[in-house]
Amino acid sequence: MTTRPDLDQIVQDIAGEMLRRPDRGEVARYIPELARVSPEQFGIAVIDADGAVSAAGDCDAPFSIQSVSKVFTLTLALGKVGDRLWKRVGREPSGSPFNSIVQLEREQGVPRNPFINAGAIAVTDVILSGHKPREALGEILRFMRFLADDDAISIDEAVAASEQRTGFRNAALANYMKSFGVIENPVEFTLGVYYHHCAIAMSCRQLAMAARFLAHSGVQPTTGRSVVTPERARRINAIMLTCGHYDGSGDFAYRVGLPGKSGVGGGIIAVAPGKASIAVWSPGLDAAGNSHLGRIALEMLVKRTGWSIFGA
Amino acid sequence: MTTRPDLDQIVQDIAGEMLRRPDRGEVARYIPELARVSPEQFGIAVIDADGAVSAAGDCDAPFSIQSVSKVFTLTLALGKVGDRLWKRVGREPSGSPFNSIVQLEREQGVPRNPFINAGAIAVTDVILSGHKPREALGEILRFMRFLADDDAISIDEAVAASEQRTGFRNAALANYMKSFGVIENPVEFTLGVYYHHCAIAMSCRQLAMAARFLAHSGVQPTTGRSVVTPERARRINAIMLTCGHYDGSGDFAYRVGLPGKSGVGGGIIAVAPGKASIAVWSPGLDAAGNSHLGRIALEMLVKRTGWSIFGA
Amino acid sequence: MTTRPDLDQIVQDIAGEMLRRPDRGEVARYIPELARVSPEQFGIAVIDADGAVSAAGDCDAPFSIQSVSKVFTLTLALGKVGDRLWKRVGREPSGSPFNSIVQLEREQGVPRNPFINAGAIAVTDVILSGHKPREALGEILRFMRFLADDDAISIDEAVAASEQRTGFRNAALANYMKSFGVIENPVEFTLGVYYHHCAIAMSCRQLAMAARFLAHSGVQPTTGRSVVTPERARRINAIMLTCGHYDGSGDFAYRVGLPGKSGVGGGIIAVAPGKASIAVWSPGLDAAGNSHLGRIALEMLVKRTGWSIFGA
Amino acid sequence: MTTRPDLDQIVQDIAGEMLRRPDRGEVARYIPELARVSPEQFGIAVIDADGAVSAAGDCDAPFSIQSVSKVFTLTLALGKVGDRLWKRVGREPSGSPFNSIVQLEREQGVPRNPFINAGAIAVTDVILSGHKPREALGEILRFMRFLADDDAISIDEAVAASEQRTGFRNAALANYMKSFGVIENPVEFTLGVYYHHCAIAMSCRQLAMAARFLAHSGVQPTTGRSVVTPERARRINAIMLTCGHYDGSGDFAYRVGLPGKSGVGGGIIAVAPGKASIAVWSPGLDAAGNSHLGRIALEMLVKRTGWSIFGA
């Protein structure tokens, strides 16, 4: 496919164009910590099968990873309970906005997939069971540091506190699931852990590092350490493709053609199986809540590299 | 990857196992023509990039392709109106059963994607516009014969007549869309064409032939004829992956990991980009309305070939 | 309560005020025949227990009774099949707009009550069964003429034809119910009878005459002829109160406090049990599709007469 | 209508028959305090315009009034904020079960009426605003004691605690409304007051006393004290009629024909305007969650007294 110098050039080109574009989407405004972030920023990092990093723009600026964290909590929960997880959460696209409660009423409190809010809360609850909130959160944070090979990764406590103070919709989702027995722990504990892992701050470089195992059959290239089985890596990728961008997942697959997961902080991770792990970030969002420039950048990257999983 | 003798063997193995399995799903019973088909049958055909065919079981038995036809009508409609099609139909997973009308009420009569019934009816309406029903149907049939390189392909008129006689739910969907202006032609004309293209009878071998262009960047291997652009082939594959199996699309992606489209007649086509086009058939369906053994056969095929688009 | 001269005066006062008011609502525009009607018109007729008529304004102008007809088709259908009717239609408020199809999907094709469109179509189907459409329509028309004691009442064929030409939403509802077996006759026959009885043209005076039996325990005062049992009259009144004004039924009960039924032509009939039958008409509608001035006129009438069923 | 001796006899007859009947419905089981109550009990109390009480069966046994309390909190909230209340809650039947959250999503967090759970929680929040929970609860309790003229009325703390411990669905509703700004106070405070007023324990005699003002134009007969204006009394009655029995309100109007409000503890109050206030109690519920024998008893009472508001 592409040789290294090409990929560096592509990444530089994309960052240059993204930093210049006038259309930047709308920054999330529901908490002040996110509303304050400048939409002028754009970062990108791509790590290939040899571990070589191509990065550009604000690739080292930490941002709130928000829902991107859900890929990693899903991985942890599958590691903890295996396929029993699928009794607590489905794996079908929702056909609804990320915070819809309607689907829960229709389906007995079982969320449709691990990437809508309700599903991610249920996944967090699985990780929490048998632990204190502090322990569960520590486990998640250690996992992120291990994957990214960077012990400096931390939680933005101000973001977590803000989310907790205003997160009535998530409290509704959690209580609703609790009424069906889908949540086992006290709602405030589960939500506490959830808000904190969403408030982890990471850079594009760190996220692309963390996502490497998904691009390489569950194994971290260079170190050779196995994180999950090849089959599990494929399956997590499949769920990212069908459910990773809320009610814009079909459009993302159509335009970009890579498994990916977005967060309301403007970050997106994407996976080109066998080729590279990718993270992009730009705080402005489109109507579906996904990074506006992040999606466009990924579309350009795939066009120039031919990495679409749907054909050359 | 795999060499030819291996693929032949794999296909033989799968057919052998599928013909023996006791669990066969439930044959569709809503019209007598489908209810009569024996669930004991199983066929498979795989065509690789060189045009070599590996086929086994009831691979030459014709069956009612039903919703599998929707991939080809989508291709035709995109050829006719291009991206203007997306004003009439979305491309997001529905999160609902194939014949749900609820989503239409919520979204002003615009169906969520081209593969649920409402969306496929809207696509048929696009093909019909400017033509008489007979002409539109002729165009669809000629396209199928061209793609499969087989002029013997025909419509099972008894199936079409039966569907038309009992298709009140589809008539509801079509009239509902018509009330929002999403359907342009007289409802009975659009439905007439729709029922007839769903009633096309084809074998696994013929379907795998017809799907070749999707596996090979829009080009038919061996002849080198271009059917669609590479980008359009990728995009159709993306829609198949996110929406191809109704409310079981997420599960199909999770288990099989290939773009595909199923029909209530028990057929499924699947696409391994760059590698092969595939058709399987077994009339017994699972709870989501997809071929029970067809899905299991594809899961086995992908496991043995490593063709998952989500990684090795 | 009120003596005759008082009631005459009240009715005159109301008509005078209603004809002068500047706020007149919006005339229905979905067919040209209704869109053409002048919103300047207002009529009222009140018939007391002695058969004395107080009428004012455009009380003799015929208008399209539309959904007001549903009270009388319900009466006919109950006369034909009795309580077996309730297997085909419910009697709960719908909590949805008059033409919603969502509820039908949730409840297996059984409409919530006889006064939403789907329910009235199901009721029409009951009347039609065993008859030709022409016969069923003749029976409905004869019943209206008998109740109003006026053989001049007729159907506005232009309205019926217009409704039929554009009634795709109703065709969707009917086909949807047919798919569940709730509709027995060919959909086009049932809809034909439905559109025609909705297109009956009557004046306020005629409608108030027709509604007398509901105000007087099932018996027409003056003639003493029994139309239904006292219990059935009460029950029809109960359904009018809970379901008579689509998704504005609660508000109508709250403001007016009488059983009533409105139509999109701007007519409303209301019943003060033991006291009077009432018809008002003004073509301008409010947001819920009920006559704007008609509702206000009834509110004034109840205030001045003390006829609310909910207390003095 | 009826003379006193007749009414006494009717009430005795009904109690006798109800105590003997084999069909008793199903006692609510979601908290142990309600599950323990014997379904063998039946009580009835009727208070006429002169203040004479006809009572029979377990008419003095206290029971958990549950949702019957919602009539009285609605009265208090209207007294506090008047028609501004209708910005926080609607007054249309819901067309859904009592604890549905779907409607809230469709209508921006505004509950459909004050008698479904979400609406009653919003009403409680209005009463709470500007007060401490203890004060608000004290006000509600004093109001009940005043209306029933009985200072012995109290709250069953075990019931309140049990509800609070298991009330995740209500917590979901409250948090959901809070996310739309419909709830002003801390969710746990509002729910605390809500659970406690639902846990008030009263007998049929006490409830019939408390409901007198609704039957008599807002005035307590015998004392002549005005509780609300006549218009407000009528309007509360109207809301009881259209919304008082969850998704069984239409059926209650159809069968009984009186404004009423039921509770899951098996109590129902009903109002015959100008004639009597009524309370019945039997713990076994029907499928819609209303007292099975309570509804049948009211049907008998109305048949023998001719008190239906829908005609003689």
UniProtKB/TrEMBL annotation, chains A, B, C, D:
Quaternary structure, from the entry: Homotetramer.
HAMAP family documented for this protein: Glutaminase
Protein species of origin: Methylopila henanensis
NCBIfam families: Gln_ase, PRK00971.1-2
Catalytic activity of the protein: L-glutamine + H2O = L-glutamate + NH4(+)
EC number of this enzyme: 3.5.1.2
Family in the record: Belongs to the glutaminase family.
Keywords, sorted A to Z: Acetylation, Hydrolase
Binding site residues for substrate: S67, N117, E163, N170, Y194, Y246, V264
Alphabetized InterPro entries for the sequence: Beta-lactam/transpept-like (IPR012338), Glutaminase (IPR015868)
A Pfam family reported for this protein in Swiss-Prot or TrEMBL: Glutaminase
Annotated protein name in UniProt: Glutaminase
A GO term, aspect molecular function: glutaminase activity
Hydrolase among keywords: yes
Presence of keyword Acetylation: yes
Domain of life: Bacteria
